[in-house]
Design brief:
By secondary structure, this protein is of the alpha/beta class. The protein is built from 15 helices and 9 strands. α2 packs antiparallel against α12 and α8 (144-157) packs parallel to α9. Residues 1-36 have low confidence and may be disordered. The structure holds ligand G3I. Residues 46-376 form the GH10 domain. One of its GO terms (molecular function) is endo-1,4-beta-xylanase activity.
């Protein structure tokens, strides 16, 4: 297996992506012609994902919601068993932690921090700067004074935390496309400048340089206008002395038999981050199968499982060591929340049963996806 990885590295992953492209084609064929499919034996269900990950020096975890954590014992037990790292779903965002100027509230975040301490789970802080989940008294971008006070209060509260080991210093700051920015080089959202982001990273380091600092972004899991500018910003921050330890690829992935996955582009993003010595981190992984939907739930779950396995194989071939799914059970997936559900699924209730993006189903039972994730960790070299 080591030979395979060295061979693939020397080939710059093109060989792997070619194999995967074939795999994608195979998936289409297998989906359509019932060719022998990859199997994900449930024998490994007895081994928690956190244990399978740790055996390879890696971390598996999930986003946690404090409200459900307190009222759903089955959910809490599942998280305790499976997770070696956790991200608060919303509890460390600005609207939760500083609802009024200078008034900090960590009650819901500390419910999660205490849970993590009890079960020896690392806590990932998400996020100090985002243009969403802002309290009404903050406009975007916040003034540097507002931002520095916020960072001081929030990072200060967790400076001596035994569990919080990393922060998303900023989240989703690259525009979705050139029409949403005036910044041709880095594609930053209107109002942001690279100097502002650099100052944020440097100020955060002055408050607490003991944590790992990440820049978290969505829709950068392939070669695109957005990922190019995100990588350029990371290089700028690195070259100008920012403490940036990792780059978070959210990985809210859409797959379909109607379009292939940009395996080659994704591998090139991972390679460029490794070349910049900024670790790629998978921070919000979940998998939505797009139209045309398969004929039944069994086929759907198979497609989700195959997609997890192929994606994680690529990640681990590039030495990714941290994988966080955005939730652990379909029972509480954000994508099933009517406030966030994609319009094409909201428009047709019969499609909503196909929103099954996570390792466990709504009855907290392991799905094929869970076995596929387990197998990916087991096969990681
Ligand atoms: O916790 C309160 C609860 O006490 C209250 O009764 C309820 C009333 O609506 O609100 C609850 O807060 C909700 C919070 O999730 C729970 O963590 C907020 O209303 C709701 O807006 C918030 O939505 C979250 C959203 O980020 C905005 O913060 C989603 O669940 C969460 O999945 C989503 O996650 C984002 C990542 O942070 C960044 N990447 C994209 C991802 C998906 O949008």
């Amino acid at each position: 297996m080591l030979h395979r990885r060295k061979f693939l590295k020397s080939a710059g992953y093109t060989t792997l992506s070619a194999l995967l492209t074939m795999g994608v084609l195979k998936q289409k064929q297998s989906h359509n012609n019932n060719v022998a499919m990859a199997s994900y034996p449930s024998t490994n269900v007895s081994s928690p994902l956190r244990q399978l990950a740790a055996a390879k020096g890696k971390l598996y975890g999930a986003a946690i919601d404090s409200v459900y954590l307190q009222k759903d014992a089955g959910y809490a037990a599942l998280l305790a068993r499976e997770c070696g790292i956790a991200t608060p779903n919303g509890e460390l965002k600005w609207n939760a932690t500083e609802p009024s100027p200078g008034v900090f509230n960590f009650k819901s975040a500390d419910v999660i921090a205490d849970f993590c301490q009890k079960y020896n789970i690392k806590l990932h802080g998400h996020t100090l700067l985002w243009n969403q989940a802002l309290p009404s008294w903050v406009s975007f971008p916040p003034t540097m004074q507002q931002l520095q006070k916020h960072v001081t209060g929030v990072m200060g509260h967790y400076k001596n935390s035994p569990v919080l080991k990393s922060w998303d210093i900023a989240n989703e700051i690259i525009a979705a496309n050139p029409n949403e920015t005036n910044d041709t080089t880095y594609g930053l959202l209107l109002g942001l400048t690279p100097q502002y982001i650099l100052e944020l990273f440097k100020f955060a380091a002055s408050v607490d340089s003991t944590k790992l600092f990440y820049l978290n972004e969505t829709s950068v899991e392939g070669a695109s206008w957005r990922s190019d500018r995100w990588l350029a910003l990371i290089e700028y921050l690195k070259n100008n002395g920012a403490k940036i330890d990792g780059a978070g690829l959210q990985s809210h992935l859409w797959f379909s038999t109607a379009y292939p996955f940009d395996a080659k582009g994704f591998s090139s993003v991972l390679k460029r981050l490794n070349d910049l010595e900024v670790k790629p981190i998978i921070t919000e992984l979940d998998i939505i199968i797009d139209l045309p939907l398969p004929n039944n739930i069994q086929d759907l779950d198979r497609m989700v499982a195959d997609s997890y396995k192929r994606y994680l194989d690529l990640c681990f071939a590039a030495d990714v060591d941290t994988v966080i799914t955005w939730g652990i059970t379909d029972r509480y997936s954000w994508i099933r929340d009517l406030n966030y559900m994609p319009a094409k699924f909201k428009a047709d209730r019969s499609r909503q049963q196909y929103l099954r993006p996570l390792p466990y189903d709504r009855n907290l039972q392991p799905k094929l996806a869970r076995n596929a994730i387990a197998q990916a960790f087991q096969q990681a070299t």
